[in-house]
Amino acid sequence: MRHPGIQFLFAGTIFSSAFLLFLVQPLIAKQILPWFGGSAAVWSICMVFFQVVLLGGYAYADWVTRRLRLRAQAMLHVALLLASLAFLPIVVGAQWKPAGTEDPAWRILGLLFGTIGLPYFLLSTTGPLVQSWVARTPWGAQVYRYFSLSNLASLLSLLSYPVLIEPRSSLLQQAHGWSWGYAAFVLLCAGTTLYMARQWSADETPPPSPTTPTTPTTSAPGQSAMAGTPPRVADQLLWLALPALASWLLLAVTNHITQNVAAVPFLWVLPLSLYLLTFVLCFESDRWYRRGVFLPLAAAMLLLCAFGLQNRIGAEVHVALPLYVSGLFVLCMFLHGETARLRPGPRYLTRFYLMLSLGGALGGVAVGLVAPHVLAAYYELGLGLMLTALAAVAVLRQRAWLRGCCVALAACCTLFLLLQVGSDRAGARSLQRNFYGSLLAYDTARDPPSDSVRQLAHGSVKHGAQFLDPARRRVPTTYYGETSGIGRAIAAAPDGPRRVGLIGLGTGTLAAYGRRGDVYRVYEINPQVFALADEEFTFLRDSAARIERVLGDARLALEREPVQGFDVLAVDAFSGDSVPVHLLTAEAMDTYLRHMRPDGVIAFHVTNRFLALAPVIAKVAETRGLHAVLVHDEAEQAEWLRRTDWVLVARNPQVLSREPVGAVATPIATEADQRPWTDDFNNLLGALK
Q1: Segment 553-574, tens digit of pLDDT
Q2: Transmembrane ranges (predicted)?
């Protein structure tokens, strides 16, 4: 163990494992997003999987280091590393595609275990296992810096995916590239493992005894200075609780800003990056986390974030986004900083990491799996803020005045949470939540009363409205007026009985265009949307057309169905404020074309604050020999209509020149070097306005 290069071997093994660990997360999530409606909840379930498997990896590392001699550790670990190569390449098989009626959360967890379970498990074991070996070396006092290094690698990996990897490679290339990288890691990790086993063989100097005192480089308050001093039970409970709350806040803030503030692509990367950065800073050394700085900042952020949940500032993007992102950073600095202050000596290193990982998994499970089933809306952030204030009571228990301040903070957070719940329920006719998000149906009174409407909101985005006045309830509103692209496309369809497909239901507004003899076939992935359209709105039952319903992802359903012969197909499915990407690719266009009549029109709803999707669809149409036009409607003729953009696609350009489409249709410019989106390649970053 005298060669200084061994430090680089340890560091390289830990860095590569953490880099691959976080690189596979967006890669695998992007593979399965199309099968589950492109819902942001897919990422939350993936995070739960990653945290649970990470917990398993840390438990494994803790068990083998306490129960097995180093040679036995090496034999077991190398065998598992070699067995994990059977999972390569990490391409999700078609057998995992959902039928549309099962619970998406359990389906996602099952396919993740079956696709990347063992490789991800072994990557997650590397950090604590190798660090337990580092603790036996002469530089073992610096062991926690390796934990900081692993989080830095995770952060670099996470940021490199949307900026460097995704825009330059297809999904298949990414999967194969990662698989080759993992194979190289297996060789590196196996080499490190065997090297350590050989160095500590029977004829070598034995490693330090577990009871030998070992003093860390910097001893923080509350840290066991001696390796053999058992940590207190209260400290071990905090090892669990503080990381659990950090993980809870990470997912809760991500849900809040992506669902209730702004559905910006890759916005989830920002909170996760800051979460990892706090790990890097707090475990690199004790100089970054200062109680005198972060305790007052954390108190202020708790109050501001809790207040924003029941005030309009919490939904205004220019205020809420910096508030909740900076709040997450400050609160995670507090939670991870206090965790780092409680870190034990090297003897209890793997137990410490196990408790830390268990806490992260519990926080993720609570928000990702439990909250959608027990909370009617996104109340987990308010709960997390309240629990963080209560955790501060335990952390600062030795100072009475600080305990009192924390109790007062918890009371304020509780009050603001109750006000949030009361505000939601005061105007709500229906408040429901499931895997696909939170749905709110509510009435808005206007003067004159005939202008009063009932609306449907998904997070911060409104997905339709209906007049309460019986005489006006069949009038198309919001994005679906007669002057919108879809209104004009239906009006331009042949005069005979029409067959219209609707991908995405909302309130069912487009059924208002149905005539006797028409057939409107609706594809909707969320069963609660069907229920709300029937219970709270009347567009479907008032329609003269025959309504057919298909539950499940529209594209998967259309791939399985016989030819439908649509005159018009409206692609109007939204996840938050964005159309799921898998409905905009060349392969999706091929599926739609199979179901269209020769003179049929495919209408894509591309109204979006953040993405320029019209050129994306135009490029896909161009590659398939189709014709595309943009219909922009300022909706100035009525207050109940919204400004919209629809892209209409057809085989025959003359279809797009019919009135009332031709008078307002405009061509769409595309770039010569623009790559068409496919199932294997799409670049949301390049589509940002």
Answers
A1: 898 899 999 999 999 999 998 7
A2: 7-28, 40-61, 73-92, 104-123, 143-165, 177-197, 237-257, 263-283, 292-309, 321-340, 352-371, 377-396, 401-422
